[in-house]
Amino acid sequence: MEHEERELGPDEEPTPIPADPTVRPRVRRTHLSLFVRDPAASAEWYEDVLGMEVTARGPQWVFLSFGRKHHDIALIRAEEGAVAGGIGLQHYGLEVEGDLDEWRRLYGMLLAKNVPVVKTTDHKIGFGLYFTDPDGNRFEFFHETVTDDEEGKRILGLYNAPSEPVEFEPLRG
Fold first, then answer.
1. The pTM is what?
2. d(Cα 164, Cα 123) in Å, to the nearest integer?
3. 18, 62, 85, 153: which could form a disulfide with 43 (CB 3.0–4.6 Å)?
């Protein structure tokens, strides 16, 4: 079927295309891109604190990986004079492997490297350890305690996605 192209008149609306509710993205992998003041300097922090490796770099950007894929985080140079705002990314959660003591060792590592720790929380499905990078971007090391996703959804709904303050003793070394 061939369609003839024509311009709409000033009072004409385009023909609506109904949305197909069965079409949804099937996300396999993700990455995060952040504006930072100095990508090279920030990359050093990401290598040191998060154990990432640089996989590509240019004069205005650096790509980093946790080791499995080509990049997990891209650091892009912000425009001169840019300031952090109150709208945008709230945090990027990083689910970490290991037991609770390993998570507590990560807490100790952050403190030893003078990384600003924002809070520790109980989410009823796991524990969150929130911290910031040199540009104020917030991250979370998440230790999952409920590993069944359906049960996790049930608990989050039951408790209204809780984020209750909780104290943990950081472990050193």
1. 0.80
2. 7
3. 62
